């Protein structure tokens, strides 16, 4: 699907019945938006409103338009016409099917006749996870990381929609950086719910949630760039420690300071 | 009078869907509610308290609840009419997935949960095949891909059925069901009939006879070395 879409979210009400802190949010191809806020603040409800193209019929009363108009019913109801793919927080798939059967059925729903996408999907999924997924695996037997990897690859290859919603992709033990790489550089609009400071700050806009509604929308002006650079270094250091830990490293010979040293110093330590 | 017949397995979300339906009925709608269950149900009281509507409940005990439903439906319609109601909502017990309690003139709604397994639509084929709408609940608990695969599985059983996906607790997506209800015609002049022949088990086992062995039963029986079942009784 290469058609371009502009998505408009019209504000609704928060848990206390107060109007949200915006009038409309326009989302265009290539935009990235991060949704941030404490647990229970309404982050998932917001992307669910977008996924179901709510028309004032959800608990928030928001409306979601496509190209300024109420979307045709097929966009909501027919997977083959749906311009939105969503990857939820679920790290379990309950379908009692093999990976191959599952993907074939999803291809039939989304892209009838494109059986060739099967290989591509599984290959991409296997670049996101350290534990390879086979076509013969049972869906319900996949680990959390495998499930998440497969769902992301499915959304990118079988869905291949102009709008992509991601709910906390960082929490699944997958290679986050490779996922982010696969998302970038396209004409897709990417909206992600995240608690990850790096992901949140690198987005073009941040939607801040509170009490079930949007409290504010912060535009990235470039002035936060210094923080992004700092975080990149911290991320890198964390990644190294995490990978060492995963492979059984013992840090007891080093001072515990290593883990809590600020970024710039830790970078120097890193270089020693 | 409009008639809605809502069927589906236990814990599938039938009552949650009914709550949303009652809440969102078009103006001027006067609903009455009948719950048919086997031994225990509280939905009638909950809905009566929440919406202040007339309700009735019937326990089928040892008899198949859908069989019971078919027997009392006529009386139930008369009851709803006698208290000047214009929409009767019937919730089945959701016990046997082979039952097709839908009738002519009714809007048949099958409620199935998205977490009930990809092959469940095949297992409850009759329940879906004669329904007008399949409402898929708990879609918030599965990934989008899984939801779409489940939908494909329903389509395999009934290619043309109207599928409505919802998180019934919040009511998302139910606008399509509400439109269907609003446009559904009232009961006409002809005799109301079942759409299909439900394989209702009104045999002696179903009515509570516990003895084993065909000699202790009537109706459709089958000795081990007989190739076909046969009918015993008058």
Task: Offer a concise description of the structure.
The complex is a heterodimer of chains A (272) and B (234). Chain A contains ten helices and nine strands.
Number of strands of chain B: 9
Main sheet of chain B?
7 strands, parallel
Give the amount of beta strand of chain B, in percent: 15-25%
Q: Outline the low-pLDDT stretches of chain B.
A: none
Q: What's the Cα radius of gyration of chain A?
A: 20 Å
Q: Strand order of the main beta sheet of chain B, please?
A: 3-2-4-1-5-6-7
Task: Characterise this structure.
The complex is a heterodimer of chains A (272) and B (234). With 272 residues, chain A is of the alpha/beta class. Helix content of chain A is 38%, strand content 16%. Chain A is built from ten helices and nine strands. Chain A has helices at residues 43-51, 73-77, 99-110, 117-128, 144-159, 176-183, 197-202, 225-246, 257-260, 263-271; strands spanning 7-10, 24-27, 32-36, 63-66, 84-87, 163-167, 189-193, 205-210, 213-219. A six-stranded mixed beta sheet of chain A has the order 5-6-7-3-8-9, with helices on both faces. Chain A has a three-stranded antiparallel beta sheet with strand order 2-1-4, with no helix packed on it. The longest helix of chain A has 22 residues, at 225-246. The mean pLDDT of chain B is 88. The longest helix of chain B is centred in the first third of the chain and has 18 residues, at 65-82. By secondary structure, chain B is α/β, with parallel strands linked by helices. The radius of gyration of chain B is 19 Å and the shape is globular. Chain B contains seven helices and nine strands; from the N terminus they run βαβαβαββααβαβαββ. At the A-B interface, α2, β5, α3 and α5 of A face α6 of B.
């Amino acid at each position: 699907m290469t058609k371009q879409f502009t998505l408009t979210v019209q504000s609704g009400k928060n848990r206390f019945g107060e109007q949200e802190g915006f009038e409309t949010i326009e989302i265009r191809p290539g935009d990235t938006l991060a949704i941030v806020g404490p647990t229970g603040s309404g982050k998932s409800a917001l992307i669910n409103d977008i996924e179901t193209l709510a028309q004032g019929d959800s608990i928030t009363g928001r409306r979601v338009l496509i190209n300024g108009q109420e979307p045709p019913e097929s966009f909501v109801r027919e997977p083959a016409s749906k311009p939105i793919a969503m990857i939820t927080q679920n790290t379990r798939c309950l379908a009692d099917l093999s990976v191959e059967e599952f993907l074939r059925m999803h291809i039939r729903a989304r892209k009838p006749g494109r059986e060739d996408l099967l290989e591509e999907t599984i290959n991409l999924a296997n670049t996101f996870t350290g534990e390879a997924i086979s076509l013969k695996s049972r869906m319900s037997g996949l680990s959390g990381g495998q499930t998440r990897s497969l769902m992301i690859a499915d959304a990118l290859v079988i869905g291949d929609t102009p709008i992509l919603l991601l709910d906390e992709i960082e929490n699944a033990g997958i290679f986050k950086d490779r996922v982010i790489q696969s998302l970038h550089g396209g004409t897709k609009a990417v909206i992600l719910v995240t608690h990850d400071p790096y992901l949140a700050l690198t987005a073009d806009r941040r939607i801040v949630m509170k009490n079930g509604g949007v409290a504010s929308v912060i535009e990235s002006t470039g002035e936060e760039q210094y923080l992004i650079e700092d975080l990149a270094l911290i991320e890198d250091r964390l990644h190294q420690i995490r990978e060492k830990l995963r492979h059984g490293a013992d840090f007891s010979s080093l001072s515990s300071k290593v883990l809590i040293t600020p970024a710039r110093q830790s970078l120097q330590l890193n270089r020693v | 009078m409009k008639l809605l017949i809502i069927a589906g397995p236990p814990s599938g979300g039938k009552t949650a869907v009914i709550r949303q339906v009652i809440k969102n009925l078009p103006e001027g709608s006067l609903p009455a509610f009948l719950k048919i269950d086997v031994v225990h149900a509280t939905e009638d009281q909950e809905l009566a308290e929440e919406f202040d509507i007339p309700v009735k409940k019937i326990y089928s005990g040892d008899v198949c609840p859908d069989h019971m439903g078919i027997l009392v439906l006529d009386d139930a319609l008369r009851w709803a009419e006698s208290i000047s109601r214009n929409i009767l909502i019937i919730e089945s017990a959701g016990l046997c997935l082979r039952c097709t309690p839908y009738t002519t003139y009714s809007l048949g709604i099958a409620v199935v949960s998205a977490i009930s397994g990809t092959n469940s639509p095949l297992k409850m084929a009759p329940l879906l095949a004669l329904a007008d709408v399949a409402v898929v609940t708990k879609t918030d608990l599965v990934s989008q891909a899984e939801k779409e695969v489940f939908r494909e599985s329903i389509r395999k059983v009934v290619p043309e059925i109207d599928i409505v996906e919802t998180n019934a607790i919040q009511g998302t997506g139910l606008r399509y069901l509400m439109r269907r209800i609003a446009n559904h015609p009232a009961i006409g002049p002809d005799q109301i009939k079942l759409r299909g022949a439900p394989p209702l088990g009104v045999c002696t086992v179903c009515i509570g006879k516990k003895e084993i062995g065909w000699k202790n039963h009537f109706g459709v029986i089958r000795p081990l070395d007989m190739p076909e079942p046969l009918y015993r009784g008058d």
